[in-house]
Amino acid sequence: MSTLLEVSGVSVTFDGFRAINNLSISIGAAELRAVIGPNGAGKTTFMDIITGKTRPDEGRVLWGPRSISLLDLSESQIARQGIGRKFQKPTVFEAQSVRENLAMALKNPRGPFDVLFYRKSRDTAARIDEIADEIGLTEDLPRRAGELSHGQKQWLEIGMLLAQDPQLLLVDEPAAGMTPAEREHTTALLVRAAQTRAVVVVEHDMEFVRRLNCKVTVLHEGAVLAEGSLDHVTKNQDVIDVYLGR
Ligand SMILES: Nc1ncnc2c1ncn2[C@@H]1O[C@H](COP(=O)(O)OP(=O)(O)OP(=O)(O)O)[C@@H](O)[C@H]1O
């Protein structure tokens, strides 16, 4: 699998505290990866480094086939490279319909090439239908986003990110606050999305991670403690000790 993102030897210090400590993680071009770890392990900071919100003191963050350094780019330039981020709390336009939300996301081209090849409105309508189908909200297209359930709002927001056609989607705790049925739908959605792009999911819920059935990276004290299948990492004695607080 070709590498899309290469984080190597990255460290971040906040007021003398080393939140990220010589961290190296590599993500493939069409890969689903779960990142787990106890509170304060550095999961959010890891995502902040990729999106340019936090700048590391050392290390490299290389992106794409030409190994562009993301550390030289601004947050908006990084977003335009095709990196989308879904925060925990859904932020959809509640007063607008699901269709309007998706249309707005499609109208917001992320790069110069999107402007050059700007799609006609007929194509936009077809694309909205495609995304609605992908996120399971076809029936809900005319509804106001504010009327959706918590889970549906999360899917809509994922759909709005997919509308930007990201190559890497970072998703923070997608299962939080969802019903079991909503979790199942979310699993399917993320697995499908990762067939054509990289998806990195930060998640606390082990059952959810198990269903994602993907490679897992365990972070602890800002570094990788273990990596592999969920079964592999949960058998690792260091991981057991960290989770049991020994
Ligand atoms: N801006 C900041 N200033 C000072 N310390 C920070 C800052 N951001 C994060 N930290 C510290 O860095 C460490 C890593 O934090 P981070 O939020 O990345 O962990 P996390 O794995 O996402 O935790 P959680 O699961 O609780 O969200 C923590 O000890 C946190 O207190």
TrEMBL record:
<dbReference type="GO" id="GO:0005524">
    <property type="term" value="F:ATP binding"/>
</dbReference>
<feature type="domain" description="ABC transporter">
    <location>
        <begin position="5"/>
        <end position="246"/>
    </location>
</feature>
<keyword id="KW-0813">Transport</keyword>
<keyword id="KW-0067">ATP-binding</keyword>
<protein>
    <submittedName>
        <fullName>Urea ABC transporter ATP-binding protein UrtD</fullName>
    </submittedName>
</protein>
<dbReference type="InterPro" id="IPR051120">
    <property type="entry name" value="ABC_AA/LPS_Transport"/>
</dbReference>
<dbReference type="InterPro" id="IPR017781">
    <property type="entry name" value="ABC_transptr_urea_ATP-bd_UrtD"/>
</dbReference>
<keyword id="KW-0547">Nucleotide-binding</keyword>
<dbReference type="Pfam" id="PF00005">
    <property type="entry name" value="ABC_tran"/>
</dbReference>
<dbReference type="InterPro" id="IPR027417">
    <property type="entry name" value="P-loop_NTPase"/>
</dbReference>
<dbReference type="InterPro" id="IPR003439">
    <property type="entry name" value="ABC_transporter-like_ATP-bd"/>
</dbReference>
<dbReference type="InterPro" id="IPR003593">
    <property type="entry name" value="AAA+_ATPase"/>
</dbReference>
